[in-house]
Design goal:
Helices cover 49% and strands 12% of the residues. The protein has helices at residues 41-52, 71-79, 89-97, 109-121, 125-130, 132-151, 158-175, 189-205, 217-246, 257-266, 274-304, 307-320, 328-332, 335-347, 406-416, 430-447, 483-488; strands at residues 16-17, 55-60, 63-68, 85-87, 156-157, 353-358, 362-364, 367-369, 374-378, 448-455, 463-466, 468-471, 474-480. Bound molecules: protoporphyrin IX containing FE (HEM). Protoporphyrin IX containing FE binds at residues 78, 104-105, 116, 170, 283-284, 287-288, 291-292, 295, 345, 350-351, 354, 419-423, 425-429, 432-433.
Length: 489
């Protein structure tokens, strides 16, 4: 075991090898596939943590995984990127095989470093602040859509509407495009994006690359969605180029991520080309859509089940927002809504696992793992442990506003619950996501009374994993408030 190099933050001495780890017994070809819940693979792995402890092995077809559930070991692995650890390679293979341009999520090594620098420039706080008026317009469109449904007494299909909101929001910020999916019931880009995530995930988790020999209707829909989304990206890029040509001053002060990326890609020796730009347009659309909208859906679901907490959130919004006007200072004051978001992401993280692969021999906790080991990072386990969060199963947003030093309490908790990942590849969209969530909640709670948020069968919302973990089939019923109504509540 001396040959194993402990990556910087990992334990130095290995006492076990992967072969020594426990794990569920599998079948010869399929491994543990048939023992897993196909709709919620993450839950099967989480259940196994209960049985085998935080480190164990399992197999999906011929792919061998090592599950790692301890938050300290996970954080160390996530920090050891890009040199010691990469995203699991199969996602990259499938992405490229579909003819999708690679962006910062897929890139590795030096290419990732270049892309990350380029993308981060678009997320600087001034930029995000400048974007607020556009985000407010998108939020107003969501308000109009929900006001129509409320006045007709209709149930709102929650997730599709929230996805329209997040697609419109990210298209505005990242591409300077008003795509207005919220105002249309026609064929919109969001419908194509919706097909991509589940189908990509299905391929990543598939035991065999069956689509190389036989394409099912879902595979044909995926390929068609790829064509449509690529066309839309070309249009975004052409529009941004036209704006840059019409107003050369924009070259020194680009107004959005896409303009900034195009300017960067044209600079000599940038190492960034049109494919990288297109890859990041796609990455923003995919990474910014499901994550934020599903977190919002889970948050509304949890709030609706906890009326006293919902009431406190309504009171906070009413105090900060007596006149219903959206602005930045007031968003900053929504501490309780932000705590609701953190608590939601602890209980219902939309990325409940992260797939990683070792680029060098590494000791993880006390286990020697060779280069190439595929790791299933179980992101939710420690966040649901009473030792880290008293009464961990309960939805209690106030725990993020703990008495004493709230900043310190929250930062200790954030080391255990890592819904945005950690280390150099931590989610670059996290502040934007929190801003979108606060904006949406402020609009919702100030303008409407939430009458119900529930699954169609009235039972607990099921978790479904298709890259992101979403609640299945939530419907929401709203009643419009009058300004006097919210002030009085
Ligand atoms: C509640 C909302 C969100 C959640 C929970 C979330 C979560 C995550 C997680 C877990 C990762 C992997 C981090 C890691 O490997 O350590 C990630 C990466 C990423 N996210 Fe987010 N995300 C959210 C919203 C967004 C938004 C709004 C955007 C952009 C518009 C975005 C863009 C990205 C990108 C580009 C990456 C890849 C970063 C890299 O590999 O360097 N995310 N996100």
């Amino acid at each position: 075991m001396e040959t194993f190099v402990a990556a910087r933050p990992l334990a130095k001495v290995a006492t076990r090898r992967i072969e020594d780890l426990p794990g569920p017994r599998g079948l010869p070809v399929l491994g543990n596939l048939l023992q897993m819940d196909r709709q919620a693979l993450h839950r099967s792995v989480e259940d196994w943590v209960g049985r085998y402890g935080p480190y164990f092995r399992f197999r999906v077809g011929s792919r061998k995984f090592v599950a790692v559930a301890g938050h300290a070991a996970l954080a160390a692995l996530l920090r050891d990127r890009p040199e010691g650890v990469r995203r699991a390679a199969k996602l990259e293979r499938i992405w490229l095989e579909l003819g999708l341009p690679p962006g910062v999520f897929i890139a590795e090594g030096d290419a990732w470093k270049r892309q990350r620098r380029m993308v981060m420039a678009g997320f600087d706080p001034t930029h995000v602040r400048d974007y607020l008026p556009s985000l407010a317009r998108v939020t107003e469109r969501l308000h109009a859509r929900w006001a129509r449904a409320a006045s007709r007494g209709e149930d709102i299909p929650l997730q599709p509407d929230l996805m329209r909101f997040t697609v419109d929001a990210i298209a505005g910020l990242a591409f300077g495009a008003e795509v207005k999916t919220l105002e249309s019931d026609e064929e919109v880009i969001q419908q194509h994006l919706d097909k991509m995530f589940p189908a990509l995930f299905g391929r990543v988790m598939s035991a065999l690359p069956y689509w190389r020999w036989w394409r099912r209707p879902a595979d044909r829909r995926l390929e068609q969605a790829v064509v449509e989304v690529k066309k839309a990206i070309e249009v975004f890029m052409a529009q941004a180029r036209a704006r840059l040509a019409a107003d050369p001053a924009l070259r020194s002060r680009p107004r959005n991520l896409l303009e900034a990326m195009l300017v960067a890609s044209e600079a000599e020796g940038s190492g960034v080309d049109d494919t990288d730009v297109a890859g990041n347009v796609l990455t923003m659309l995919l990474a910014g859509e499901d994550t934020t909208s599903n977190t919002l859906a889970w948050m509304l679901y949890l709030l609706a089940r906890h009326p006293a907490t919902l009431e406190r959130a309504v009171r906070e919004v009413a105090a900060a927002w007596p006149d219903f006007q959206l602005d930045h200072e007031r968003l900053d004051r929504l501490d309780f809504i932000e705590a609701c978001a953190h608590e939601t992401m602890r209980l219902k993280p939309v990325a409940p696992f992260i797939g990683l692969q070792l680029l060098r021999d590494t000791v993880v906790a006390d286990i020697a793992m060779p280069q190439g080991t595929i790791i299933w990072g179980v992101m939710r386990h420690d966040g649901l442990d009473d030792r880290h969060f008293p009464d961990a199963a309960a939805f209690r947003p106030e725990r993020w506003l703990a008495e004493g030093d709230p900043a310190q309490a929250a930062s200790a908790a954030k080391r255990v619950s890592m819904p945005f990942g950690a280390g150099p590849r931590v989610c670059p969209g996290r502040y934007l996501a929190l801003l979108e969530m606060k904006m949406c909640m402020a609009m919702l709670l100030s303008r409407f009374e939430v009458q119900s948020v529930a699954a169609a069968d009235g039972r607990d919302a099921r978790e479904q994993l298709q890259f992101t973990m979403s609640p299945v089939g939530l419907r929401m019923r709203l009643r419009e408030r009058t300004p006097a109504g919210v002030a009085a509540s």
